[in-house]
Design goal:
Blueprint (H helix, E strand, L loop, with lengths): L2 E10 L5 H18 L2 E6 L4 E9 H12 L5 E11 L11 E4 L2 H8 L18 H14 L2
Parallel strand pairs: 2-5
Antiparallel strand pairs: 1-3, 1-4, 2-3
């Protein structure tokens, strides 16, 4: 097995309050440390989530397909890209987070940030440019 990353978006069924978002992050960070998954969570005030997970293939897939998809607090989960990666982009974060405006999320995913699906898989792969944009986006938001 090797390093793998997966990026998805979803929509909360009801808006998350600040305490609920904090509780979600605390749980996610503790769980992710146990399974050696790192990543980033972006949350928009309209309830949209964009998350990237990275770690060993089986760990990332299990987290997304067995835990996140079955979470009743959100719906319309859609994998935007997934695939092997050479290294972690968010190695220092068990789960980084930033609140983002809806327009900011759209801008991050615009302009070909994901490669088209190929004969090697039905899901688009994540381009390095998107990872760089996400790191820059979070760095600007925390400065």
């Amino acid at each position: 097995m090797g390093l793998y990353h997966l990026i998805y978006q979803s929509q909360a069924l009801v808006p998350f309050t600040d305490p609920e978002l904090t509780a979600l992050l605390l749980w996610s960070r503790a769980y992710n440390r146990q399974v050696h998954v790192t990543g980033l969570l972006l949350h928009a005030p309209d309830g949209r989530f964009l998350q990237i997970l990275e770690g060993e293939d089986a760990d990332v897939r299990q987290l997304y397909y067995e835990h996140i998809l079955s979470d009743p607090r959100h719906h319309h989960c859609r994998v935007l890209g997934e695939g092997s990666c050479a290294e972690r982009s968010f190695a220092d974060w068990s789960m980084g987070c930033r609140v983002a405006e809806k327009e900011e999320l759209h801008a991050l995913l615009a302009n070909g940030a994901l490669n088209a699906p190929t004969r090697h898989g039905p899901k688009p792969t994540i381009r390095p440019e998107l990872l760089e944009l996400l790191l820059e986006f979070v760095a600007v938001g925390n400065s």
